[in-house]
Hints:
Layout lengths: L2 H15 L11 H11 L6 E6 L6 E5 L4 E4 L6 E3 L3 E4 L2 E4 H15 L7 E3 L7 E7 L4 H8 L1 H6 L2 E7 L8 H11 L3 H9 L14 H10 L7 E3 L5 E3 L4 H7 L9
Helix pairs in contact: 6-7
Amino acid sequence: MSYRTLKLTWMVILMMAAPLGLAAQTLDEAELDALRAALNVGGVEVMSAQMSEMPGVVEVQLKAGPLVYSTLKGDFFIVGDLYSVGQTGFVNLAEQRRDQERVEVLAEVDRDDMIIFSPEGETLAYIYVFTDVSCYYCQKLHQEVPELNKSGVEVRYLAYPRAGVDSVPGKQLVSAWCAENPQETLTRLKSKESVPESRCKDNPVAAQFALGQELGVNGTPAIIMETGEMIPGYRPAADLIEMLGLNSEAGQ
C-alpha cells in the first residue's frame, strides 16, 4: 500500500469511527491537557488544538512542526492535509488555514523592514516575495517588477538567502537591506553588478530567513498573494496580474 493510499485510508477510518456530534465541539481544558500529555513525547510540543471540520478529528499545531490530525485521546495522529469534498471538487482545508496564518503573520512585518517597489499611481494590489539575489528566477521576476508596478501591483521583498545568512548571497542581501538606496542596490545585485559591502545593526535578513522557513518557504522566489496563497517559484507578471484580478492596463 502506498503512503498516499495509507493516509487516505486512515482518514476514512477516523471519520467512520468518530461520533458525528463531536464535529462542532471545542476542546475544553481537560481534553486539551490530556491531548498535550499524550502527544508531548520525544521533544514534541503541542502549541494549539481544536476540533477540525472532520467529525471527531482534532487539528493540532505542533511547535516547530507540522499541522497534524489526531484522535481526541491523542493515541493516533496523521501528518497530511485535510480535504473537504463538495459538488465543485476538493478543497484543501489545511492549506486554507495556512493561507490565513500567512496573512496574519506578514501583516505584522514592518514595512521599513521590507524592500518595497510601489506603483507610481494607486496601489491596487500587492504581493510578498521571498527572494535571493543569486536565484535566476528571482532575477527574472525582478525584471518584470516595472510591469507589475505599472498595473498597480506593489512588490514587497523579504530576504531568503537559500544558502544561509552567512553565505555570499546572504551577505549581499544584507548589503541591499543596509544600503542608502535598498531598491537600487537590490536591482544592481540582481543584475549581477558589484555593490559596496554594507552592514547595519539589527538588519532583518536573518529574521526574514527564519520567517520564510516558518511559513513553509523552501525555495525562491516564493510569492505570497494577498490571500496568503503561496506560489512556489517564478510566475510571469501577466499571470500574477490576472491572479490578482487586475489587467495589464489597470495602472495606466
